[in-house]
């Protein structure tokens, strides 16, 4: 075999090795995301159990905290739930002292309400999530600014992909 042929064969082997390594890493990342989803779901379940909240209640509280105040219709849209379901969730959250529904003066009519989270109760949530938050801070402290930008970009694009997949399933 000529030197050129040997070099070409070596290049093909390296390329195949790189492709296998990339497939293994891609699989490992997807598996890690699945495991992270499971662990976060278990954490949310424990938090919900301690506060007597259902998983869907926690999800709605999170949406209200991040995007609120929200109308019940806007919350239903963001949560991917039927408006009647959201009414029941908001009734539970209001009875538990987690949210209030106030008249929205900027709404199209007098029946329009805005849902606000109550800060006093948010402390209970922060306390229960503080261990995970501290762990995340510790993990992230080990990354450079460039690495954090890479991670933030990856997670943002992954979240968008999940949102699009959810939209596709709900519309078809």
Describe this structure in words.
The chain is mostly helical and 172 residues long. Among the domains are: 51 residues; 66 residues, Arc Repressor Mutant, subunit A. Helix content is 77%, strand content 6%. It has six helices and two strands. It has a two-stranded antiparallel ribbon. Helix 2 packs across helix 4 and helix 3 crosses helix 4. The longest helix is centred in the first third of the chain and has 49 residues. The chain is elongated, with a radius of gyration of 23 Å. It starts with a helix and ends with a helix.
Biggest sheet details? 2 strands, antiparallel
Distance between the termini: 57 Å
Rg, Å, rounded: 23 Å
CATH topology term of the domain at 53-118 = Arc Repressor Mutant, subunit A
The CATH architecture of the domain at 53-118? Orthogonal Bundle
| Model regions low in confidence, pLDDT < 50 over at least 5 residues | none
Describe the strand arrangement of the main beta sheet, using strand numbers. Answer: 1-2
Strand content: 5-15%
Shape: elongated
Individual helix count: 6
H/E series = HHHHEEHH
- Give the helix/strand class: mainly alpha
| Total beta-strand segments | 2
User: Considering the protein shown, what is the CATH homologous superfamily of the domain at 53-118?
Assistant: Winged helix-like DNA-binding domain superfamily/Winged helix DNA-binding domain
Mean of pLDDT: 92
Helix coverage percent of residues?
over 70%
- CATH class type of the domain at 53-118: Mainly Alpha
């Amino acid at each position: 075999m000529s030197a050129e042929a040997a070099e070409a064969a070596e290049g093909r082997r390296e390329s195949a090795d790189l492709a296998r390594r990339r497939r293994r890493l891609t699989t490992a990342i997807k598996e890690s995301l699945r495991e992270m989803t499971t662990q976060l779901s278990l954490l949310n379940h424990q938090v919900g159990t301690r506060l007597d909240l259902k998983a869907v209640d926690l999800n709605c509280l999170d949406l209200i905290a991040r995007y609120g105040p929200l109308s019940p219709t806007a919350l239903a849209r963001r949560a991917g739930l039927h408006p009647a379901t959201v009414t029941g969730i908001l009734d539970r959250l209001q009875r538990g002292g987690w949210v209030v529904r106030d008249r929205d003066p900027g709404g199209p009519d007098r029946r329009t309400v805005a849902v606000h989270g109550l800060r006093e109760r948010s402390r209970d949530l922060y306390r229960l999530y503080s261990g995970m938050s501290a762990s995340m801070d510790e993990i992230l402290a080990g990354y450079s600014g460039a690495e954090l930008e890479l991670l933030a970009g990856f997670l943002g694009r992954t979240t968008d992909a999940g949102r699009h997949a959810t939209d596709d399933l709900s519309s078809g």
